[in-house]
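Page header: ASSEMBLY MODEL / two components / 228 residues total.
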Amino acid sequence: AQSVAQPEDQVNVAEGNPLTVKCTYSVSGNPYLFWYVQYPNRGLQFLLKYITGDNLVKGSYGFEAEFNKSQTSFHLKKPSALVSDSALYFCAVRTSGTYKYIFGTGTRLKVLA
Amino acid sequence: DTGVSQNPRHKITKRGQNVTFRCDPISEHNRLYWYRQTLGQGPEFLTYFQNEAQLEKSRLLSDRFSAERPKGSFSTLEIQRTEQGDSAMYLCASSLARDGVVTIYFGEGSWLTVV
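Prediction written out in full:
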């Protein structure tokens, strides 16, 4: 069965510092990986995805993520955090042959001024 | 380009009543998803349509839940005889099926509170 784990409920980082939000996955077959962000009382907004190719993918708002097949990870990163990045971040996975996207439990990012 | 639209955004209902949520996907998107999200959790898959065909349903979708997409455009999610455990945000998402892996785009969600 497909699954996604986000091991940290919350990540605190100072504004201007680099941030990392962790995600690991478990699938049979090739994974398709996604990151979404959710602001309070809003739906989820797409940030970036990994399908194939370069392990480092770039997305919206300066975010990027690194796919690591051997560690089955897809960590979200940003070189310099902004206070406005504070939100709930979700990692999701899908595999070929299904159309179901499985989401992690989310990581709350708090960027401190 | 309008996004996924969901109505109503908020609904408070008494236990035992029926509620219906509507989702209008992005124009021309032929795939439509319903998810449920409770506080502190990630979205949980409920069901998926390709055009008007409901291709997959989660075991979370009990007999009290029914979803339709009659003309392959908008979709409705009905919950009959609501229970307090149904209180959650119901999210709709859509995508356009093409070769390769598609991104799903979410609406703003419909909050349900059962009192």
